[in-house]
Amino acid sequence: MQALGEEKKKKLEALYKELVDCGENLDTCKELMETIENLDQGEKKLEALKTAVATIQRVHTFLKKDVSADLSTPAEFEDRIIHFSDIQELMESVSSFPIFTPPCAPVMNAQDPNSATGTSVKVCWSFFSEDIVESYQLYYKRVSNDTSSKEEEEFKLNVKETYCTVAELVPNTQYEFWVKAVNRAGVSSESERAVYMTAPLPPVIKEKVIQSCEYSALVQWECGNINPVDSYTVELSKVTGGD
């Protein structure tokens, strides 16, 4: 197989040289014809005569060349005996090419602690198969507890990694996520769905309605979230007056 490739290379190089020579001959012929046509257009007869003599010499030299339109490089290749080792090497090189099939479905990961803000959440998933994956399609929609309302709108993101930070979400709200793997052969089936939740907005203390006495204080605040909050953590700190 290697010898056949070398013979092909030599034939192409020889053919290229013949084509270049043919082009040069055509250019020379065209130049001589244009020179002959312009001989009687010159104003100075002496210069025209000198040009004519030089042109005649060039024409004689050109006509002595062995110019042929036939290509001397034969198109046929030599008969060669192909060894079994060459065929085996070719088959192994073909079998080494990757065969693409649609990938398996990824696996959604549970939400990590402190992975969300009020308007964003970091979604992660895993891919345990050896299938080739070029990208992922991440889908999500808002979880609605109202069964009578219409279906929530679905959103889609194209992702290269196995994680994605999804932004522009509603605070203190649950979202359902699922993902598909993609390669040039197609798209996998969707993964199992996982529910992630954004963080609630910070409460706002009502300073004007705070009541206190010597050993206690009544503090009120506004939630600021659309959905109910599970619980609150109240932190106290002692304030000392300066001199």
TrEMBL record:
It comes from the Eukaryota. Residues 106-201 form the Fibronectin type-III domain. Transmembrane segments: none annotated. Pfam families: fn3 (PF00041). The keyword Magnesium does not apply. PROSITE patterns: FN3. Gene3D superfamilies: Immunoglobulins. InterPro entries: E3_ligase_FN3/SPRY, FN3_dom, FN3_sf, Ig-like_fold. The keyword Nucleotidyltransferase does not apply. Residues 29-59 form a coiled coil. Keywords: Coiled coil. This is Fibronectin type-III domain-containing protein. It comes from Micrurus paraensis.
